[in-house]
Design brief:
About 30% of the residues lie in helices and about 40% in strands. By secondary structure, it is of the alpha+beta class.
Length: about 70
């Protein structure tokens, strides 16, 4: 239940467009991805991809060093 509550808090904060920083772990943030044209690899047809928001995570130095 505690883990679910933490994740719900992170998701709620990201929905507001704010970032969440957890010391020693990293920073969760939201990145705006612009609209673009893509290509369907099966048919070769050009497809329009709408602008969207995507979650982003930057690992803290402590986490990177621990994984090495």
């Amino acid at each position: 239940e505690i883990v679910n509550a933490i994740f719900d808090g992170i998701v709620g904060t990201l929905k507001k467009g704010e970032e969440v920083s957890i010391a020693g772990i990293g920073i969760f943030s939201v990145k705006n991805r612009a609209a673009r044209m893509a290509r369907n690899p099966k048919t070769g047809e050009s497809v329009s991809v709408a602008a969207t928001k995507v979650p982003k995570f930057r690992a803290a130095k402590a986490l990177k060093d621990a994984v090495k």
